[in-house]
Amino acid sequence: MQLFPCPFCGPRDETEFHYGGDAGNARPDGAEVPIERWANYLYLRANPKGTAREIWVHTSCGEFFVMERDSVTHKVLSSTALGGERAA
């Protein structure tokens, strides 16, 4: 079991969290977006080893936040509320 740091509630069991996607993957804007651009948004991702920035939600408090973690070791490097607060 792994502990994830919620910026609002502190360290909690990983089962209390839900992955929301890569941080910085901006959704295409507008109805007239070419199908290729939608496909790139939905399916094409870089998957480098090392630091990953991800959106997570803590299902207990309902807050979304950005977590940086190492994709090889799964060590959590930081946890930041979308409003800018840092986790302890």
Automatic annotation (TrEMBL):
Matching InterPro entries: SoxD (IPR006279), SoxD_sf (IPR038561)
A Pfam family assignment: SoxD
Listed NCBIfam families: soxD (TIGR01374)
Protein name: Sarcosine oxidase subunit delta
Organism in which the protein naturally occurs: Mesorhizobium huakuii
Taxon lineage: Bacteria, Pseudomonadati, Pseudomonadota, Alphaproteobacteria, Hyphomicrobiales
